Amino acid sequence: xxxxxLWFLAAIITCAVLFVAVLFYQWTVYEPxxxxxxxxxxxxxxxxxxxxAQIYVYQCQRGANPKWExxxxxxxxxxxxxxxxxxxxxxxxxxxxxxxxDRRLVILHEASRGDLSVAASSFVYELPEGAATTLSVxxxxxxxxxxxxxxx
Length: 152
Hints:
Blueprint (H helix, E strand, L loop, with lengths): L1 H29 L8 E9 L5 E10 L5 E10 L4 E9 L5 E6 L2 E6 L7 E2 L3 E5 L5 E10 L3 H7 L1
Parallel strand pairs: 6-9
Antiparallel strand pairs: 1-2, 2-3, 3-4, 4-7, 5-6, 8-9
């Protein structure tokens, strides 16, 4: 009986440590500071057809030593000024570009599948009238972001 109690105690301690680690990850890494308060420069901005959200591509440097340098795709809800990170890619993996279609954001990238990190597959934002709408996020690998965008 004592052995079973020790197993349960060990399981509870393990679950508590994992829970705290996930919370710490959520607060520090998964949801970083918006690009407006970080070391980021805007490269491209698109506005949705309903003018209720803006999509940005930023070139950012995060961290101290070693620094992470790369591209981040962010969406801003204009009604309540909330930010949501949609994707990231290291600068060494190649360029990122965005194309806004009807209810769909396409992220054009040169990165390999493992280098592009998509944080959200959709983006829900409020309209000024009070309703909400969704923008789905898709990715497409291309050889040259700028050239591919001009051809489409």
